[in-house]
Amino acid sequence: MSLFLINFISKKRVKNILSPYQIQNLTKEIRKFAQRELFISIDQEGGKVARLKPKYGFEQIPSASSVATMSLDEASAIYKKNAKMLHTSGINTNFAPVVDLAINKKNRVIVGLERSYGTTSKEVLKFAKVMIQGAKKSI
What we know:
mainly alpha, 3% strand, globular
């Protein structure tokens, strides 16, 4: 099951994310009906690609390009906070980090949405690793 903020048929209608309390209850209730462990997933990268938004009561997570300007310790603290928020919400699969390179400055999806940690694989992997480690240590 994937969680989305917007219903793609009617964009004015919220699909299944309203608040931290609501998402916790939703994931708990879904698990009650499952006959095995479920993957409850989301795309929570940070910045503009955040399904769990501050306006609904969730933590603000900066974009990958913003995180790439920080120290590794700061990045680690952010991603531990993100992982804890996901875990508390009942989400066990995150479709992040994105490991694309920001080499085409005109790319609206990667560069425009600030979804990359940099222009080299070394830069990108350094911060992607921090995000993955944060997720592992927070559970």
